[in-house]
Amino acid sequence: MKKKSVLLILLLLVQLTGFAQDLKIRSSVKNVETKVDSILFMMTLEEKIGQLVQYNGSWDLTGPASEMGNKEKEDRLKKGVVGSMLNVLSVEATREAQKLVMENSRIKIPLIFGYDVIHGYKTIFPVPLGETASWDLEAMEKSARIAAIESVANGINWTFSPMIDVSRDARWGRIMEGSGEDPYLTSLVAVAKVKGYQGDDLADSTTIAATAKHFAGYGFAEAGRDYNTVNVGEYELHNFILPPFKAAADAGVATFMNSFNTIDGTPATGSKMLQRDILKGDWNWNGFVVSDWGSITEMIYHGFAKDKKHAAEIALKAGSDMDMEGGAYEAGLLDLVEEGKIDENLIDDAVKRILRVKFKMGLFEDPYRYSNPELAEQISYEEHKEVARDIARKSIVLLKNEDDMLPIKSAVQNIAIIGPLAADKDTPIGNWRAQGEANSAVSVLEGIKAAAGKNVNISYAEGAALGTGERSFLMPLEINETDKSGFPDAISKAEDADLVIMVLGEDAFQSGEGRSQAKIGLAGLQQELLEEIYKVNKNIALVLINGRPLEITWAAENIPAIVEAWQLGSESGNAIADVLFGKYNPSGKLPVSFPKAVGQEPLYYNQQNTGRPYSEQHVTFSSYTDVGKEALYPFGFGLSYTDFEYGEISLSAEEMSTNDEITVRVPVTNSGDVAGKEVVQLYLRDLVASKSRPVKELKGFEMIELNPGETKTV
User: Fold this and answer.
1) Strand 457-461 and strand 644-646: pairing?
2) Which residue is catalytic, options 165, 182, 292, 424?
3) Which of 40, 235, 604, 675 lies 20 to 30 A from 341 at CA?
4) Is residue 292 annotated as part of the catalytic site, yes or no?
5) How far, in Å, are 176, 258, 432, 439 from residue 514 at the CA level?
6) Residue-wise pLDDT tens digits, 595-648
């Protein structure tokens, strides 16, 4: 018995050790901790602090202007007191920046080069919210893999992605950059993205380090206003905000990024509870935390720090390891250590975390491994475009299809394509487009013309421009509210058409960082244009191109077919045409709820029941007296060109203890006439619990493909 007990304990230790390894950043580099310690032993305090500093390389591209000039930054690079740079683009540029460090500094610690590679580098995939609508984790991993390869070919080895902020508010501009309102789905997307970027070996020169952001609560900004206050309790924090970050940490994500917002009165950048206690303590995660752009010094504006030096003290003690363009660490940490206000061991811990990632990336073996000009020549961008087209059509959600208007029938010989986004080749690229070329996407007009063939007459009218003036990442879009000069031409073309395809939605720069909106309907003259066209031809298929859920109640009540096409990236028009003409049967499901009115926001499916859930008899219940409380189109919703019938659910047991499990089975049949994919979703509800639980919670899903008449048990 003793031998068996010893054997059992040894096996358990082996299993636990293996599990612990899974929590770490995977790399083929050996003896990393010994190497890290040996470098740290040689470093001066100034050199240590330098590793905690990140500079912008293209000089103030994505944030407020820097106070430091380029010459001073170059001198500090040569001195070896800079740990990272961002926005240094091209293998030539990163090689030159790396040479400044490697040929001039004392210890020669290589730089790591970061960039916002959010949904593709040159080949642009659907915006993350749209891609999540595919519910295809393999596709999401593949798009991240391609983005990594294209990034490395251009000298980038670190992406500030995935953004895994759960968000329930369509007004928040950055909802386009995340995966929607559900923590379970977002957690799986987080793992898929980390795997795609980092692969199985971070030292592989075709992988890049990923970043889980923003830690934490950013998506819960009050009133959906970017950078705003967040007030949540521990229940909401641990059940809805943190699970995707825990999943990313468990998947071995190399870095975390903290967020701009306060959370319960404390700026996230200065939150010891989030960064030291939970992330580095409870989760035992061993990568490093980078601030968001200037978020350390922004604690001064929060009224939490009196100056840069004080902000540096707060941030480092809280666990923020690297200062992105804040200027706080280089300005204050040396004095703080000498004054005894910061223990040098805290700086050592931050430096070790950064060195650990650099070693695991193989940078100490070859500082120029990500500056290989030959790699770009090996990339087949045409193959990447084909993948982008496939992922784009998987991301399309069919919201409405009365009388099977879609797919387009052969009897339709005259199609009028109308709308400000119909011929737009730029908006489908979306915001946060990395090095995606402006106006390079396939437009809806181009896609339909290519798919329709010679026997179909295609006419086009813009109707009304969506925006006026110049478009800019840093400036709000000016919306056209007055110019209706294109209305008569659009109405005339609609009158003569068998089918009208209206292409409406949002400009690429209506959603994204700093682009929160109090109104989330069809901006400008689009709603009026839609209603005018409807007066002369009711055979309308509405194609929506947008980065957030829109308020489209009028369209849902009147327009027979509605296709949610998001901002789908490089191959947008071809993917949309594939769905409209039936080459691809839509299979997407919403990752976020669409409201009946903006006043319902924040809106999400997994709400708690309240003590007075609903009553049609009188008003003293939890609802609205004008629009109700239900979503127009709820989370998980999406139609197909075929029909799926669900049979009876069967359980392997009626009861279970905490150590048991129950298997749930359900037969699903394709009762329609064409093959199709269905995302079978499992929701649970805990009826009696120690804390009030949501009315339902997603806990599993599986995508199946069925031929007509075929049945599968999930």
Assistant:
1) unpaired
2) 292
3) 40
4) yes
5) 12, 17, 12, 22
6) 999 999 999 999 999 999 877 778 899 999 999 999 999 999 999 999 999 999
